[in-house]
Specification:
By secondary structure, the chain is of the alpha/beta class. Helices cover about 35% and strands about 20% of the residues. The longest helix is centred in the middle third of the chain and has 18 residues, at about 130-150. Bound molecules: zinc ion.
Length: about 300
């Protein structure tokens, strides 16, 4: 390591990938990620089995085709608890650095809630557009995918886009987390070193506190990710206890995998028709992508 390199490392902030000359991750492009958020919203509401969900899948797969080392889909069906038909669900997976036995799983749900049940009046029966609750996590994952196409974190990475996270009526827990539960149930011997879930990570002025189950069951992973955020000076990550949320990380915690949920549940537009791009910001997406990329390098032991 030469003097110039040492200087660059000193400037690039402590506690982040610097040793052994490993290059730091590229800087995420918030505007490009925001365009992915808008593109999903323009697909319309995206509950399981909907035309909007099919359009969103096409957008996600188009973006992944540009750089992922392998892309796969996982289809399954359930009986629709709220309708006469069966419901077809599809998880999408993009993998990078296929030969690495040590892997990290990054997840987000791409489905959106079929009813705005936190809204008022007749709006409660209408589907949401899910700019923050749905599109934001996917947008960050797509930006991470573009980084992984040109930057090697030193570890294998799998991105999974879950269907059917937000389908159940309130209290009807069996019909939440359908995609992630199916993935965890069918993953065989696959055991990632860590799972990081992104859900509601795009709000303007967001505050991502420490989700309750994450702190309780994966405190070391909380330390890594919030430590990275702190070292990068990303102030939207706030190391205070947040609510415990039954979310797509729970099936992985149940399987014994350290898993955390990065979520800002303080969004006043949550599960309402007001969950729109105007409440989201490119900088929020870029900040989360940056923390995730640097966390990958940390999890690789760099
Ligand atoms: Zn939701």
């Amino acid at each position: 390591m030469g003097a110039a390199r040492r200087l660059a490392c000193a400037a690039a902030l402590l506690a982040v990938a610097c040793d052994r000359g490993a290059p730091p991750p590229p800087m995420p492009d918030g505007e490009r990620a925001f365009a992915d958020l808008v593109a999903q919203v323009e697909c319309g509401p995206r509950p399981p089995g909907s035309p909007g969900a099919a359009r969103a899948r096409r957008h996600i797969l188009d973006q992944l085709s540009l750089g992922a080392h392998r892309v796969a889909t996982q289809e399954f069906a359930i009986r629709d608890p709220y309708g006469a038909d069966s419901l077809r669900l599809v998880n999408l997976q993009a993998s990078f650095y296929l030969d690495r036995p040590v892997r990290v799983l990054l997840g987000a749900h791409y489905d959106t809630r079929p009813r705005a049940d936190r809204d008022t009046g007749r709006a409660r029966d209408l589907p949401i557009l899910g700019a923050n609750d749905g599109a934001s996590g996917v947008a960050v994952l797509l930006e991470v995918a573009r980084a992984l196409a040109v930057w090697d974190p030193g570890i294998g990475v799998d991105l999974v886009f879950f269907d059917g996270e937000d389908y159940g009526q309130e209290g009807d827990l069996e019909y939440y987390l359908m995609g992630s539960r199916h993935f965890a149930r069918t993953m065989g011997p696959y055991r990632p070193r860590a799972m990081i879930l992104l859900d509601m990570v795009g709000r303007r002025d967001q505050r991502i506190r420490v989700e309750g189950y994450s702190q309780q069951m994966a405190p070391e992973l909380v330390d890594v990710v919030f430590g990275v955020a702190e070292s990068l000076g990303v102030r939207s990550f706030v190391r205070e206890p947040g609510p415990a949320v039954v979310d797509d990380h729970v099936p992985f915690l149940r399987a014994g995998i350290p898993a955390i949920d990065l979520i800002d549940l303080d969004d006043p537009s949550w599960h309402t028709l007001a969950d729109l791009p105007e409440n989201c910001a490119p900088e929020s997406l870029a900040d989360v992508a940056r923390v995730v990329l640097h966390s990958l390098a940390r999890l690789a032991g760099r």
